[in-house]
Amino acid sequence: MDPLTPTCPRCGYDLSAATLKWEEACPLEGSCWECGLGLRWADVLRADRRADERHVEHAKGAWATWVAAWRSLLWALCPPVFWARVRLECWVVPRRLAVWVAVVFGTLWAVNGVVSWVELGARFGWTWSTFLDIDAAQAWVAPAGAFVRRWQSLGPIRMTFAPFWRDTAWGPGYAPLLACSLVFPLLMLVLAATRARAKVRPVHVLRAAIFGLAWLGPYLLLVMALRVFMAAVVAGPRAGWMYISLGGRMYDVLSMAYYASVLLGLGWIAWWWWCVLARGWRIEHPGRAWLSALTAGLLTAAIILALDRHLLYLLVT
Q1: What CA–CA distance (Å, rounded) separates 185 from 208?
Q2: Mean pLDDT, to the nearest integer, of 107-121?
Q3: Under a CB-based contact definition with an 8 Å cutoff, are residues 230 and 117 in contact?
Q4: Which of 87, 92, 93, 86 is nearest to 39 (CA)?
Q5: Residue 21 pLDDT
Q6: Exposed/middle/buried for 237, CB within 10 Å: 0-12, 13-18, 19+?
Q7: How far is 2 from 91, CA to CA, in rounded Å?
Q8: Contact of 274 with 292, CB cutoff 8 Å
Q9: pLDDT tens digits, residue range 229-255?
Q10: 256-289 burial, b if ≥16 CB within 10 A, otherwise e?
């Protein structure tokens, strides 16, 4: 995109014809003839107003990009702050969105894998056999699923791979939150009335969808915290006392922490997409589109939770 060509930041309409009508001075504000977006002409005509080097999409240099990636995560965790800094006028750089995912979630994924090894070492001993066992790979394949042992009455143990919506080392909260996060952008793309009224380009939906995964940062920190807790229970100086205190429901107590995170995560996802529609894309009357997508997202998450046998066990015992 030519930074000197005035285009609408939301729909991409060429506004050059509007600037040709100026005779004496440039007005401060105007609107897009195509989608009606209110805008400041300085944000459209000046390239420096359409980029923020503190944001990962516009940072320059490897180190600055690394720092900006984590800064952007912190912004995204508070949606009003994110959309106040990453305005609609800021250019979307899709390859930098991939960089953000790789830096932030790649780092957390690797750290979680190392923490899982620490937990295994504390539980089963620091031997080669511990880390060559299939359990040592569970945290590394967790985004996609988990290896599951199938016990048979006769014959050897079968090893199968279960997809993440059935089992994952990242806990039972991962699948419903991820599903809800994906439903929102998909509906934003297919809701014809919303797209026709707002004329939001797919790249803006892509940006909102990618940074809408920011909940995964705190969620992975929760996963790691529970792993550290497990290691402390097993290998700590008061391991016996903690076992007695928690009794046979220790794993159930840990599972409840995951299910509680689902409620918090769904609330954050709803907040994020409301801010996307109202603050980010500046859609007039965003309530109907938001409510439709929210209903579908919550229904999808509820279906996944309803199929979770462990949750049903906790609810009836």
Answers
A1: 8
A2: 91
A3: no
A4: 87
A5: 61
A6: exposed
A7: 11
A8: no
A9: 777 776 655 555 555 455 556 666 777
A10: eebbebbeebbebbbebbbbbbbbbbbbeebeeb
